[in-house]
Amino acid sequence: MEEATSSDLTCSNLPRHLSSFVNAFVDFSVSGLFFPNSKPNTPSAPTPAISTRFPAPSRLVAIGDLHGDLSKSLQALALAGLTDPFSLRWTGGTTVAVQVGDVLDRGGDEIRLLYLLHRLKFEAYRAGGELLTILGNHEIMNIEGDFRYITPEGLDEFKQWGRWFRVGLNMKHLCLGLEKPSDPFKGIPTSFPGVKKEFWEGFRARIAALRPDGVLSRRFLSGNQTVVVVGDSIFVHGGLLQRHVEYGLERINEEARDWINGLKGRRSPTHMRGRDSVVWLRRFSEGFNCDCQHLEGILSMIPGVRRMVMGHTIQEQGINAVCENRAIRIDVGLSKGCSNGLPEVLEINGGLDLRVITANTLYDHRRVMREEEKDGLALLVSESRLEEVEAVA
Hints:
Layout: H1 15-31, E1 53-54, E2 59-63, H2 70-79, E3 96-99, H3 110-126, E4 130-133, H4 137-143, H5 152-173, H6 200-210, H7 215-221, E5 227-230, E6 233-236, H8 242-247, H9 249-260, H10 292-300, E7 307-310, E8 320-322, E9 327-329, E10 344-349, E11 353-358, E12 369-370, E13 388-390
């Protein structure tokens, strides 16, 4: 075989390797993380299928809203036995974990959390487990360009991401044989009247990253479920009404995916908007006088489902349940940008054994209550409080 001459060593011979290197360089510069080569869902597919239903695992864990707080999120993940607190690697084995949305807003670690959860998905998949992430109302707001709940720290994080991403674009442009990537900042204003000038660059980067077909929204959010059924539990950020079930859970998931991928215009699908939408509903997560008969009717429409697990509404008393454990509310406001609550996670073993794993040292219960015990909740500190098991994050 003849030796390659210098004229043969053009970028056109190495586009995939060059792009992979640049992408890995940008990823590490932004998040400090590298990613495996193989992925559970192939990102090159324009519309990868979104699974809505998963079989019952031996162990199921649910984690509430994270809101841009990496430190507290890591505590919750470690509390659940899902990650090593030092290496940040997946340690959950075959556990299936569901995070019920609202990763964005109110904190300064939004991008780092998106990257971390993304990598943990790969690691969980390789271990025979699963990490499922759900769209919350704050993801929907940001994709639509509603930045009411951003923080200066969050804008700075996006500004830094934007700078590194441009470095990557410039590196790719140096190679004349490589097809020029599109510029995600194209068409975005360079100034924002009414916003302090120091935040303009962060605003531009946030729009480029999170708008429909944005760099980070397509990569990290388009594969998220809006509603997911795991065994006999259904997970949703806000809640479900009869009309949502009639519309079709799979249809809701697919329409959200298509919108985030830029195929459905700028506004979110109808079921994502308004106080009674799947990401905004609070009917079963506020107070303790819920319409349990109404909830039972909704659950009966979904074969095999016996409980709804929700985030969205902060539960200052911690994770709790109403309607005989049919409605479980798991948003403990753990982010410093919310109520700085103590980390707690919900664990469901074998579909029946429910417990709260908590960092709250006031609780030292070791009982695990089964749903068929009629007086189970009455034995606890609060009627609405699920069994708690103290753990150290």
